[in-house]
Design a protein that fits this description.
About 20% of the residues lie in helices and about 40% in strands. It has 4 helices and 20 strands. β17 and β18 form a beta hairpin. The two termini are about 20 Å apart. It comes from Occultella gossypii.
Length: about 250
Amino acid sequence: MSLRVRPIQYTAHTADWVALVTALGGEHVRDEGDWQLFAVAGGGVAIHGMPDGDPAVGHTELRFVVADLDAALRAVTPALIELDLSASVTTEDFGRYAEVTAADGQHVYLDENSDLVGRVAGTGSSDRTPAEVLPLWYTPDVARGEALLAAFGLRSRIRSDAGQWVDLTAPGGGLVAVHGATSVGAVLSFEHPDVRALAERLSDAGIEATVVDENYGISLRIANPDSPDDLSARIWVNQTQEDLYGYQRLD
């Protein structure tokens, strides 16, 4: 099952998001006005334009794409049953998708779509390497979140010794991280092997990015097009983690 990470970001500022994902190295796959689709280093990102003031604006949905939904459900259903979870299938004008509601209430989706099959943004020197998508799932129960993603076929990559962070790789491309928190939600973030070079590239595109040195490594903070003045809404781009003090590599 070639499941691929492809979150949807809802926005009232589609053009600004398109400019940002393009500067991050995304390759435009579809342009349908309010629906914009990008391939990134391995996964994908969808931008869904909404009217200003719509309650969905600023919301991130944790979604994956598969070319054959029925085959994917046959593969994941036994593991979901073990977790006392199930998937419901919905058919819309744009296609079919399955929805699983995690124990914490987070909705996780499998979309049947082949637009990204075989599409990977170009690679090259580190100053042109595209970012990889890395949505964050905030939850009070990291272990259950990890177990659900493992049921989908993702493989755990790096886990903190404290158990408050684990990131996973999808078989078809892309990353997802489960982050311990008191509330439940999802936000869009990214990963890149050289965030300083990426910051220069963003600056050349007229996008301000601040390099921040954290205990686990360096990262970028980028203003969110829907909340540019809200520091808490900044978009994170983590540098690929090499310092594993306090963490363990699992793959």
